[in-house]
Amino acid sequence: MNDSNVPENRKSEPERQLDREIRSLKELLDASKRIVVFTGAGISAESGIPTYRGAGGMWTKYDPDKYASIDYFRKDPSYYWRFFRDVRHDVMNEAEPSAAHRATVELERWGRLSAVITQNIDGLHQKAGSTRVLELHGNTTRFYCFDCRTPYDMPAVRRILEHQLPPLCEKCGGVLRPDVVLFGEMLPVDVIDEAQRETQLCDLLVVIGSSLVVYPAANLPYQAKLSGAKLVIINMDPTPLDSVADLCIHRSAGEVFPQAVEMCSAAS
Ligand code: NAD
Ligand code: ZN
User: Fold this and answer.
1) Is 61 helix (H, G, I), strand (E, B) or coil?
2) Quick one: pLDDT at residue 260?
3) Kind and range of the H or E run holding 167
4) Using CA atoms, how far apart are residues 102 and 107, in angstroms rounded to an integer?
5) What's the pLDDT score for residue 67?
6) Given its phi and psi angles, is residue 222 left (phi above 0), alpha (psi -120 to 50 degrees) or beta?
7) Superfamily for domain range 28-48+97-137+187-268
8) What CA–CA distance (Å, rounded) separates 126 from 119?
9) Do the Cβ atoms of 36 and 115 come closer than 8 Å?
10) Which residues, by Cβ under 5 Å, contact ligand 2, an ion?
11) Ligand 1 centroid to residue 45 C-alpha, Å
């Protein structure tokens, strides 16, 4: 499994523990007909995009309280745009989906995944091939004018950024902003409604790589549990929902999730 060439009786206790966790996850996946995968920054850590929290988290040069806050954006939009131009743009552009992103696509092909609900803004689920992705916090590759709401795509913004910071709307001169939910803003109502519907209907919700401390997004896994679904949490660090989860695995996503999905696919 983690190394199928090693005979069972030669495996160390940590290797056996890993096998047990993968098997338990596989059994829960097998027993479910309507699965929701709920992801946070941890699933993209293996694609090279830093998380905010957890080991190795946080961009050190820029302060998330500034680049991720609507109050600060209104005060000084240049801070966000410098961060975007110097750090985020390259990191997000060059990132490729991780093994766990790809395994999520595999689950969808297998016919039992009803939705991916993500807090991430990097678009990596779609890049991997997932077709039903509910983005709770928007997407950092889409933009619009704060004043007249005209949408802008990445090439247009890059072109304006070459000579102007912050980039301004070509129609009205308003400041352009990313189509993401900044701290202090409401989540998009239609997306949250749909995400709530999916969490109420699912029979298994698998959290991958989320600290589950950012609200209201972190409510969704708990809602799923209250509605009768099984709850699995795969996260490096402990989360506030560990005590109510049916299975909790404190490991990297790539270490367990792809193997469990592969075992299901092989068996189906
Ligand atoms: P978070 O940064 O609060 O927590 C990430 C969690 O992932 C940590 O608890 C850490 O232990 C865990 N983790 C790190 N590497 C992992 C791995 N390889 N496998 C499994 N777990 C791993 O992230 P969050 O809960 O998503 O919330 C932070 C907010 O930041 C979100 O609103 C999100 O929009 C935003 N954010 C997005 C990105 C992105 O789009 N890739 C990156 C950073 C932050
Ligand atoms: Zn405008």
Assistant:
1) coil
2) 96
3) none
4) 9
5) 84
6) alpha
7) TPP-binding domain (3.40.50.1220)
8) 13
9) yes
10) 145, 147-148, 150, 169, 171-172, 174
11) 7
Q: Ligand 1 within 6 A of 235 CB? A: yes
Domain ranges (residues) in the chain = 28-48+97-137+187-268, 50-94+140-180
Say which ligand is closest to the CA of 51: 1
Question: Does the beta carbon of 122 sit less than 6 angstroms from any atom of ligand 1?
Answer: yes
Helix (H, G, I), strand (E, B) or coil at 5: coil
User: 261: closest CA among 81, 107, 34, 121?
Assistant: 107
Q: Which is nearest to 198 in space by CA: 118, 100, 97, 105?
A: 118
SS3 34: coil
Q: What is the CATH number of domain 50-94+140-180?
A: 3.30.1600.10
What residues are labeled active site? 137
Tokens of 107: 């689950």
User: If we measure between CA atoms, which residue out of 3, 68, 56 comes closest to residue 236?
Assistant: 56
Task: Per residue of the chain (268 residues), give pLDDT as tens.
Answer: 455 566 777 778 888 989 999 999 999 999 999 999 999 999 999 998 877 655 554 455 678 788 889 999 999 999 999 888 877 777 777 899 999 999 999 999 989 999 999 999 999 999 999 999 999 999 988 999 999 999 999 899 999 999 999 999 999 999 999 999 999 999 999 999 999 999 999 999 999 999 999 888 889 999 999 999 999 999 999 999 999 999 999 999 999 999 999 998 666 6
Query: Is residue 116 a contact partner of residue 101, using CB atoms and an 8 Å limit?
Result: no
